[in-house]
């Protein structure tokens, strides 16, 4: 009987052969054409520049963050270097991918398809030893007795505890939900390509005052089409006139339409336009705020999903809550470090937080003497504040 590793190897060989050709298989999200005439699915949508840019921005930003397993012992928090999941999520999830490539792939799958999958291979003790990224089209999620199991092509039935699953909102693909919106963007792109591909010549009708035979019409039409592919002055035969039946890019508001649709796509993926190089009325301060908005409202929810799935699937029940996975989001807030420093300073000066509480928020270990709350007046301890007040209130030797 084939082992899990044998079945995984067979699946990897299947996937390599599956995508060697330029043509995609028929099961990869073919939904038919949209009202605009564009065929939109998860694969064709990636040919839209803004969709690709938004997907890349989300996936690469998260994959570039530090991800560790931490162990809490009392008030001490330290990286759990010895835990099997530490190297797995931080350095080497499997034999053929780096951690960056693995997370970038599974997150991009989740962003586009609504879910990203990785098969968990375990040792005899139940600890994860490999994370094998799966193509979403190789996995069929089936309800069974109030839970779900996964039928994986080339592998068989996989129990939920052995499937790492990163899902989007309600597990739904934004590409499917917004096909018409993306179709309009693709149609505008196609319109521009056709316009410039024809040398800027608009579609029209050649008409004649005289009756023509079919052979004559074919010759004139072929000559005109050939001439239309080149720039320069066109000469109409005697008795012919040209009537334009299509609209110009200006009349179609081509630039405005493409810009608006690009902004709509940014709205779908919750990515600020400036992060995908779209022009907008922004200043330096606005860009900084948009970066913070991206970190708080786009990246942070994704990292929380991933952290909780790692805690649920890669850390055993008996190890929680002492062990937990956590992304380091400090890099995303680096541009706002001054604001954070000002906040902590005010909290410390007014006795709201002590030094160790601040260090805890920054994932730093406590320091000796850091549990004392201080106030701004000489930074003395709150327990000494009354004595200091009494000392200040004492009369001087001259009776004043």
Could you explain how this protein is built, in words?
The protein is α+β, with helices and mostly antiparallel strands. The chain folds into 2 domains: 1-197 and 249-328, no CATH class; 341-394, no CATH class. Helix content is 41%, strand content 16%. The chain contains 12 helices and 11 strands. It has helices at residues 4-18, 49-63, 84-90, 99-113, 174-177, 179-197, 214-228, 254-269, 284-313, 337-349, 355-361, 385-393; strands at 66-73, 76-79, 115-122, 128-134, 139-144, 147-152, 156-158, 163-167, 204-208, 240-244, 323-328. The strands form 4 sheets. Strands 2-1-11 form a 3-stranded antiparallel sheet. Residues 12-30 have low confidence and may be disordered.
Write the layout of secondary structure elements.
Blueprint: H1 4-18, H2 49-63, E1 66-73, E2 76-79, H3 84-90, H4 99-113, E3 115-122, E4 128-134, E5 139-144, E6 147-152, E7 156-158, E8 163-167, H5 174-177, H6 179-197, E9 204-208, H7 214-228, E10 240-244, H8 254-269, H9 284-313, E11 323-328, H10 337-349, H11 355-361, H12 385-393
Short description:
The chain is an alpha+beta fold.
Q: What structural keywords apply?
A:
400 residues; alpha+beta; three-stranded antiparallel β-sheet
* Number of beta strands: 11
Q: Roughly what percent helix?
A: 40-55%
Taking pLDDT < 50 over at least 5 consecutive residues as the criterion, the unreliable ranges are 12-30
Q: Please trace the helix and strand order, writing H or E for each element.
A: HHEEHHEEEEEEHHEHEHHEHHH
Annotation field: number of helices: 12
Overall tally of domains: 2
Mean pLDDT: 79
Helix/strand-derived category reads alpha+beta
Widest sheet: strand ordering: 2-1-11
For the report, how would you describe the main beta sheet? 3 strands, antiparallel
Radius of gyration: 31 Å
């Amino acid at each position: 009987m084939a082992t899990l590793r044998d079945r995984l190897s067979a699946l990897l060989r299947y996937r390599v052969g599956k995508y060697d050709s330029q043509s995609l298989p028929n099961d990869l999200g073919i939904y038919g054409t949209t009202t605009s005439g564009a065929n939109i699915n998860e694969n064709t949508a990636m040919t839209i520049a803004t969709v690709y840019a938004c997907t890349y921005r989300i996936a690469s930003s998260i994959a570039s963050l530090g991800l560790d397993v931490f162990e809490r012992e009392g008030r001490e928090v330290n990286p759990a270097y010895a835990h099997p999941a530490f190297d797995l999520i931080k350095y080497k999830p499997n034999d053929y991918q780096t951690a960056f490539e693995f997370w970038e792939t599974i997150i991009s799958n989740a962003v586009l398809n609504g879910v990203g999958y990785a098969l968990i291979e375990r040792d005899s003790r139940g600890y994860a030893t490999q994370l094998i990224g799966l193509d979403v089209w190789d996995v069929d999620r089936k309800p069974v007795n109030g839970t779900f199991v996964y039928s994986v092509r080339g592998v068989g039935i996989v129990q939920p505890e052995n499937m790492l699953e990163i899902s989007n909102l309600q597990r739904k693909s934004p590409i499917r939900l917004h096909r018409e919106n993306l179709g309009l963007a693709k149609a505008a792109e196609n319109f521009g390509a056709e316009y410039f591909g024809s040398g800027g010549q608009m579609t029209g009708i050649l008409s004649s005052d005289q009756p023509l035979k079919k052979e004559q019409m074919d010759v004139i039409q072929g000559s005109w089409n050939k001439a239309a592919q080149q720039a320069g002055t066109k000469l109409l035969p005697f008795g012919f006139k040209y009537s334009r039946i299509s609209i110009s890019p200006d009349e179609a508001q081509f630039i405005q339409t493409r810009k608006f649709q690009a902004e709509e796509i940014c709205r779908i993926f919750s990515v600020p336009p400036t992060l995908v190089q779209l022009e907008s009325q922004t200043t330096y301060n606005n860009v900084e705020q948009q970066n913070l908005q991206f970190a708080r409202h786009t990246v942070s929810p994704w990292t929380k999903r991933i952290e909780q799935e790692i805690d649920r699937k890669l850390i055993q029940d008996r190890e929680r809550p002492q062990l937990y996975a956590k992304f380091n989001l400090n890099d995303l807030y680096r541009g706002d470090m001054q604001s954070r420093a000002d906040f902590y300073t005010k909290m410390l000066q007014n006795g709201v937080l002590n030094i160790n509480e601040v260090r805890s928020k920054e994932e730093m270990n406590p320091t000796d003497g850091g549990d004392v709350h201080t106030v701004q007046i000489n930074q003395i301890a709150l327990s000494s504040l009354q004595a200091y007040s009494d000392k200040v209130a004492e009369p001087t030797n001259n009776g004043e």
